[in-house]
Design goal:
Layout (H helix, E strand, L loop, with lengths): L1 H28 L5 E2 L4 E2 L8 H6 L1 H12 L4 H14 L3 E3 L2 E3 L109 E4 L4 E4 L2 E4 L5 H17 L4 E7 L3 H4 L5 H17 L4 E3 L3 H5 L16 H15 L10 E8 L2 H4 L11 E7 L6 E6 L37 E6 L7 E6 L16 E5 L8 H7 L4 E7 H4 L2 H12 L3
Parallel strand pairs: 8-9, 8-16, 14-15, 14-16
Antiparallel strand pairs: 1-2, 3-4, 5-6, 6-7, 10-11, 12-13, 13-15
Helix pairs in contact: 5-7, 5-13
């Protein structure tokens, strides 16, 4: 009996350590991916060893990040892990179980109420004018500046009054250009009209397939996300954006919240979700004071609802939808805007986006769509891309034309990143527009195509994604001569705590 127990102990030890050894060897020798289909980005490259990087320890830090970011079969692991975790957090709404709490309005996340928005100061190197190199030193942020607390916002019902978001005059701007005249913004009050997805092969009402674990539906041949947000997160987003204005009072600060496609195209049985999204859009806009100019694009998108303003197989808007909203933004900002008729229109066939790669809507594989994009007539544009964590120039990112703004050789599934590349870089476009205005866009992935429609509007356009940007935004604003800041994201990211925290980190200078 004793020998049997010893044998079991030995067998168990061999099994555990043998499994660990096999797993370790697998992760070391197996082929590592270079791109992420679900995240639509290039993964970390293997670092090159140098005496300097060894001495500073940077080589080992980058090597660790490389191994973590390029785990073999990472897409399968991510999908499985997300599925398991989401099933542990299921909630029921109107009889439908939806397992992703980020996508549903389950609670107001009471634990976040106690978090304090505290500004932090940190000096970060930024690229100097006309250079791709990181300077040896940077100008420290002022240390005697009084800290500004965010406004206290009460949870009041939405009213129907016009919200007059008037930009604060920029009297000390060094580039000496006119300040835009902000016009009054009327918040939408009408319930959106549902427009069923076109399904030419079906005889009647398109079929509806639910994807409850992801909070999405497939309506005919069009995927859509179901909406749910947090009013507490909305208040925090407003406070973060207004804090940037408090720190830099000469800036013109704007907010653009993009509706989801489900705002306009949900079937009648899901119309309450569209109404909730519209109500929250009104509520969010009503929270802003006159410090921030709200660029309301609900009516803009609604007026073009019969055009292809959203992708069918992807959760993003189309480049056409982005164009219409950038036209509205340019009008609010008081800058010139290039008409769509001057762009070169191109397309790629066979596009199937995130509703397949992330949401698993396999039926869309047999119903791909045409991806249409637009090339700006401004050939004087020059775009550079920088690492989002240390501002080193990414000389390896090469576009397909002299502007370096377009990447037409990407495979079809990456078509959304044709303009301005992907999320995990800082992009800086010098346009030669001659307006004397310089724009910083703080965005989620909905912002990716937007700079390409503003090449005639701003002399320099800097775009950062708070999911990857880790440096001092005020050094960035100062060094780049920024005159205007736009907070742009889809309504999910402006109303859910996870992404809003990233806005806070940028406004506070994350540690």
């Amino acid at each position: 009996m004793k020998n049997y127990k010893n044998f079991l102990k030995f067998f168990f030890i061999v099994l555990v350590f043998g499994g660990m050894l096999v797993t370790s060897v697998f992760f070391i020798v197996a082929k590592r991916p270079t791109t992420s289909e679900s995240e639509k980005r290039e993964l970390a490259p293997k670092p090159k060893m140098s005496f300097t990087s060894l001495l500073s320890g940077k080589y080992f830090t980058d090597l660790q990040y490389y191994y973590n970011d390029t785990i073999p079969n990472r897409e399968a692991f991510k999908t499985t892990g997300a599925s398991v975790l989401s099933r542990l957090k299921g909630v029921s709404i109107d009889g439908i179980v939806i397992y992703n709490p980020v996508l549903v309005k389950a609670t107001e996340e009471p634990d976040d109420e106690d978090e304090t928005f505290v500004p932090r100061a940190r000096t970060t190197p930024v690229p100097p004018e006309g250079s791709g190199d990181v300077p040896a030193t940077s100008t420290p942020l002022p240390t005697d500046e009084p800290e500004t607390e965010p406004p206290v916002i009460t949870d009041e019902p939405v009213n129907t009054e016009v919200n007059d978001n008037t930009a604060v005059p920029d009297t000390s701007e060094p580039v000496g250009t006119p300040v835009p005249t902000a016009t009054a913004t009327t918040r939408p009050t009408a319930t959106p009209t549902a427009a069923p997805a076109k399904t030419p092969d079906s005889g009647g009402e398109p079929a509806i397939v639910e994807y409850p674990k992801d909070g999405a539906i497939l309506y005919g041949d069009m995927g859509m996300e179901l909406y749910g947000g947090s009013k507490n997160a909305m208040k925090r987003y407003v406070a973060a954006l207004e804090y940037i204005k408090d720190r830099c009072p000469d800036l013109n600060v704007y907010s653009m919240t993009v509706p989801l496609s489900s705002m306009f195209y949900l079937p009648a049985s899901y119309k309450s979700n569209a109404t909730e999204q519209l109500n929250d859009l009104n509520y969010l806009e009503g929270l802003f004071s006159s410090k921030v100019t709200v660029v309301n694009v609900y009516n803009t998108m609604k007026s073009h609802v019969n055009e292809k303003i959203y992708l069918r197989t992807d959760h993003h808007w189309t480049y056409l939808g982005a164009y219409y909203c950038m036209k509205e933004f340019a009008s609010k900002a008081g800058v010139p805007f290039i008409d769509l008729s001057e762009y070169t229109v191109k397309s790629k066939e066979g596009y199937v986006g995130s509703f397949y790669s992330y949401f698993g809507m396999k039926a869309l594989i047999d119903k791909p769509e045409t991806f249409t994009y637009y090339i700006s007539p401004n050939k004087n544009v020059r775009v550079k891309y920088y690492d989002a964590s240390n501002f080193s120039l990414r000389s390896d990112i090469k576009g397909t034309d002299s502007t370096n703004a377009y990447f037409e050789n990407l495979k079809v599934s990456y078509s959304y990143s044709i303009a301005m590349y992907m999320d995990d870089v800082i992009s800086i476009a010098d346009t030669g527009a001659g307006t004397g205005r310089r724009l910083l866009i703080i965005k989620d992935s909905f912002g990716n195509p937007t700079p390409s429609f503003l090449f005639g509007s701003f002399d320099r356009i800097v775009m950062i994604d708070p999911r990857y940007y880790t440096m001092d935004v005020y050094d960035l604003i100062s060094s780049q001569g920024i005159t205007d800041v736009l907070g742009l994201a889809n309504i999910f990211d402006h109303t859910t705590t996870g992404f809003v925290k990233l806005y806070e980190y940028v406004a506070q200078n994350r540690e």
